[in-house]
Amino acid sequence: MPKKITQYTEDDLPKAYDANLFEDSIYKNWEKAGAFKPVTKKGSKKKPFTIIMPPPNATGTLHLGHASMLALQDIMIRYHRMKGEPTLWIPGTDHAAIATQNKVEKLLAEKSITRHDLGRKKFIKEVEEFVKGSQNTIRNQVRKMGSSCDWSRETYTLDAGPSLAVRTVFKQMFDDGLIYRGNRIVNWCPRCQSTLADDEVKYKEARTKFYYLKYGPFIIGTARPETKFLDKVVVVHPDDKRYRKYVGKTFDVPWINGTVKATVLADKASDPTFGTGAMTITPAHSQIDFEIAQRHKLEIVKIIDEKGNLTEHAGEFAGMNAKVSREKIIEALDAKGLVEKIDENYIHNLSICYRCDATIEPLTSTQWFINVDKKIPKRSKSLKQLSIEVVKNGKIEILPEKFEKIYTHWMGNLHDWCISRQIWFGHQIPVWYCKNCPGKPIVEIDTPARCSNCKNTEITQDPDVLDTWFSSGLWTFSTLGWPKKTPDLKTYHPTSVLETGYDILFFWVARMILMTTYALNEVPFKTVYLHGLVRTRNGEKMSKSKPETCIDPLDMISKYGADALRLSMVIGGGPGNDVRLYEEKIAGYRNFVNKIWNVTRFILLNTTPSDLSKPFNKKDVKTTADKWILTRLQKLIKESTQLIEKYKFSEAGMKIYDFLWNEMADWYLEFSKGEHKNPAVLLHVLRDTLKLLHPFVPYITEVLWEKLGMQKFLMLEEWPTYNASLIFPADAKKIEKIYTLITEIRKVRAEYKLDPAKKFDAVIYGGALTALLKEKEQAIKRLANLENITLAKKGTKPEKALSVIASGVEVYIPFDQMFDIEKELERIKKELAQHEKELAGLQGRLHNKTFLGSAPKEVVEQVKSDAARHTEAITKLNEHRRGLEKAA
RNA sequence: GGACAGUUAGCUCAGUUGGUAGAGCGUCUCGUUGACGUCGAGAAGGUCAGAGGUUCGAAUCCUCUACUGUCCACCA
Question: How many CB atoms lie within 10 A of CB A273?
Fold first, then answer.
């Protein structure tokens, strides 16, 4: 930082801002100075603001989704830090059990090694090496985005702290009877060789064959004949008249492996309108069939095993891959004359694994579950009820609001959560089994030395690991030190905002709510802000398989700078709304960043070191233009602050953008060229604007702050406050009239294709604005490109002249030669028509008694004054027209 | 099958409690003006998806329709 300010010259400041020259070093300076750590100011009673960063998977690199998440969170964090709140943003990474294991297995497969070749210990070591590498990549990328997170508190889900939290919660839930081991239907991925939670299953539409098979007196329909070996129960709807006579009866039915004894049951689960209305059931491989079997206490036999092969119950087909066996089984059935017909065009949803796309096989398996319906001891409510309650009673607010309904609905239909996974990487389940005490699992936080029951030392730990979302569910408090009672936990929990994509509302957000309300009896966060997905220009999902549409955030940063990328992802998006991103858009915001640079450059080249060192004082306010820009600035401060408070970052960003470019640069800076230059106001407006911009574009604003000779980091400055004493409504209105006038003159010049280089003389009758016009004469001359101005309150109209009537001011540009009166008449007529059209609309309303009676006063007044304005313009234009007609 | 969102200028999107439609990009014309060509000035371009209703007044509120998208449920 420069200690002494010297006068800037053109050579000190390049014409264009080059983000690459500044970003990395600025970030390093912030980090070195400890600027990302929360600060509690002495005597301040401000409440802390906390965000726990959704931990990116430790599998690889960041994509645009992460970039947009980081941008939004950093905006909130920087804003609250500037508001003087103790602000904490904790970064971290997620071990992402299945995803990471798959990735490493794939890498090993390239060397023809399987995890079994290595064994559990060596394999885990391999995974950890891989994770270290990608964690470093992620850390650098998070930094590149300008994220002001507290690296000293960085956490990884497999760190000692979070792992202890995981085991502690597991034991607590087990002791409360909420965790149980059971043989239930699970979603099994034969590729991953593991269970999947219900929401880890994706669906894909597929065209398959649908078989109608003869089954005793029934025709049953199925898409999966390979599961039907042991079917001996026919289920029909109790109200189905066609089959009522069969209910409760038994039949001998010729079937795949000989004759079976079939029983007919009535159950409402059978849909009379689907297929033939009669179905046989396969309880071990279908959720619905399983439930029916439980209701009627039927035997549950597994036909397909974990590898996707048929079990010994398949008789001659045993050991065959289930998929392969299908045709063979149909052949066998057909040989027995049991195939009624085959529908070749049956479209149904295929369940596939969301990690590896393999077809899911529902099967029964012994797994660990969390019971979501059981009442928690001493709380008389289930996990499900607790989780719904905190959202319903407003302790947690979800944005956009519509997701509250979706959340409640999903939570209401939640089944018991299967938490065991048959993989090696992750938190191994803290359960041990003793050889001598079957059926009595030992659940401990720390590895026990012996069986708690018989003291035997021969105990083995459950080989499975926990679902990765189990540990993510604890993330808001495991990162803060729980189960230890740390000061961080006390200060920063519950956290303020959880900001994440709506695509993981169920995976993660719901589970955090469930786990936290259980373990801490407290909500994990007060507000959930769900951002949209980043899409391509055409609204498609960006995917790595289509590299031409897939934008790499790091490329964009090196090309346009992190600030431009941040803006392009924030502006145009809102909670729950997807954002379309394409390179021109980023380039557009790079242009804006450059504009910020040049506005500052102009001001620095027009101020002296002594201007820079003087604090702003109200006495420095001099011209009408000063009053106008200060008024506009106050309005901007008020509005943008409110918008940020309401999480409307896009609108806030747009407002500030608009102010800087269309008001400050286009008009105030222009007025400042020449005699109205006022360094004090220029600098004050610039400083406040840089502060408002800082959360959105932290790098450029910090760079410029330093150039302005400020000693402290901008990121640690105070957020501007609305100052009512800097509001001058009457002056602000006058300046707006001046610039409409200038615009009108420019319009006429352009319309007549007047030589832009040539300056013309003008006669101006200013009416009520005459004094101001006098003050701004130089600026008007410069901006409207006029030579001499003859200014008076009013006067006679020159005969041959172009006319501009705006803001109650008449401007005439006299012409001696080359002047086409006909053309000017035509133009005036066009303008008259425009005014008359608008006047007619307004008068229509003014003549309407009901309008006058029921519309609010302000509206009526507005309409009246608008009508008067048009009437005046019409009068003046008509006078001018008559003059021209005479001259012609 | 159920639920929800969207449909506004060529493209991407704003549009607060209803007061008569805006921006950026693109297009066209022009420009070496004391910061910026990553710029400046100006212009063209819209029956606010369609129909009906409430209202003095509807892009905005209500109903229906069409199209697009998302989520949930999964069907033997």
Answer: 7
